[in-house]
Amino acid sequence: MRIRSLRLVDFRAHAATRVSFTPGLNLLHGANGTGKTNVLEAVHYCCLGKSFVTSNDQYALRRGARFFEVEADFSFDSRSDATVRLTYVPGEGKRLAVNGAPLDRLSDAVGRFPVVSIAPDDHRLTDGGPEERRRFLDTILCQESPTYLDHLVRYRRALRQRNELLARQAGRATDAMLDAWDAELVRHGARITLRRMEFFDRFDTFLGESWRLVDGRTERPTLRYRPFAPGLPTDEAEVAAAFADLLRDRAQGDRERGLTHTGPHRDEIVFRLDDLEVRRYASHGQHRTFVLALRLAQFFYLADRLGETPLFLLDDVFDTLDPDRINLFAGLLTQPGRQSLVTAAHDGLFRDAVDWAAGGHSALLISETLNADAP
């Protein structure tokens, strides 16, 4: 998949901007505050219906504007080209259209326009709380499988309703009140759990290969899935039965606390280098390298599973990397069939690693001069 052009209207720093991209490496450079990250964020909105910078769409609205709109033109090797337009209006929410046809749900676009992003806040994957690692996992699986996404959406809806009931009843929620939501949690939670189990069996190989690319040392990276209950079986009916039993056993504690304390929303993912847990024992450099390996593994995994090369977004990734690693990434990003959008403060980032004259790659200055009419 490739993005050919992007249009932004009243989005962050951009009043009206249109950007065209080459099919290879696109280096977006310029001073801080000129809107480089905004371009990548807008592309992410078009691919997944959401930002990788914030969970509040209001923050992406240009000050004083009534709405924002972003539109991207994509091309594919194996299917028809597509134009994606996302509009956000405060108080009304987001609307997404593909080739002019409105989608009923934002989630209907997920997986159709695969994307992988690396951003400065990604350090939270290895040193933050478990919700960051679950989000990483779900972002991959939702792009790979619409069925997984559907189960996740339904699970989260049931969880929200159950928690609201527990809080509203303040310790008085009966088993009969909880039964309907418990059944929904069990139905969708069992399938989410099994899908996560299957994922880790496959993803380890991609992580190992990516680690060798970005580091090359003999340490062995692994991911360990730690589900909400130890020793869960691998049969769906048995997982569902175990989950239902736990919900019943812990119902009184849930009533007292006003929250649901068991289920896939409590899963943890443990990253290790050899026998040491990354979050607790890795050095700063090992944390940074592990994150890069995770994102590369995500890229290779999605390309393998979807049969479509994802778009790669790299936001201010290279400031802390040594020249050898920068050159290594340049080699990865400039391979045929791969398109990337990279932000940096200056245009000399890949000066010795990319043959700009050969074509297929571009360095674009992002500045106020881009904020011209973009019909």
Itemize the secondary structure elements and their pairings.
Blueprint: E1 2-11, E2 14-20, E3 25-29, H1 36-48, E4 68-75, E5 82-89, E6 93-98, E7 101-102, E8 115-118, H2 124-127, H3 130-144, H4 146-169, H5 175-214, E9 221-226, H6 236-249, H7 251-257, E10 268-273, E11 276-277, H8 278-281, H9 284-306, E12 311-315, H10 323-333, E13 340-344, E14 362-365
Helix pairs in contact: 3-4, 4-5, 5-6, 5-9
Kindly describe this structure.
- Helix content is 41%, strand content 21%.
- The chain is an alpha/beta fold and 375 residues long.
- It has 2 domains: 1-114 and 310-375, Rossmann fold (3-Layer(aba) Sandwich); 129-307, RecF/RecN/SMC, N-terminal domain (Glutathione S-transferase Yfyf (Class Pi), Chain A, domain 2).
- Strand 1 and strand 2 (14-20) form a beta hairpin.
- The longest helix is centred in the middle third of the chain and has 40 residues, at 175-214.
- It is globular.
- The two termini are 24 Å apart.
- The mean pLDDT is 93.
